[in-house]
Amino acid sequence: MITGDLLGLLIFAMIATLGAGRVLGVDSYLARTEFVKNHPRLRYFIG
């Protein structure tokens, strides 16, 4: 049975996981490249 506490924990885990790529993943590397800086629309694909 899913309680409110479990649902809150799952939402928190999802947000933490999705945001982790911006700090430690390939997304942060790609966002710093000149190619992405010259084409701002690509930032929407990165996240």
In short:
This protein has 47 residues and is mainly alpha-helical. It is 79% helix and 0% strand.
Note poorly predicted spans: none
Q: How many H/I helical runs? A: 4
Mean pLDDT: 80
**Distance between the terminal alpha carbons, to the nearest Å?**
33 Å
Question: What fraction of the residues are assigned to beta strands by DSSP?
Answer: under 5%
User: Based on helices, strands and strand pairing, what is the structural class?
Assistant: mainly alpha
Q: Sheet with the most strands? A: none
Element pattern in H and E: HHHH
- Tell me the Rg in angstroms: 15 Å
Overall helicity? over 70%
Assembly type of the shown chains? Answer: single chain
Total count of strands: 0
Globally, the shape reads: elongated
Description of the structure:
By secondary structure, the protein is mainly alpha-helical. The protein has a domain at 21-47. Helix content is 79%, strand content 0%. It has four helices and no strands. It has helices at 4-24, 26-31, 34-38, 42-46. The longest helix is centred in the first third of the chain and has 21 residues, at 4-24. The radius of gyration is 15 Å and the shape is elongated. The chain starts with a helix and ends with a helix. The model has no long low-confidence stretch (mean pLDDT 80).
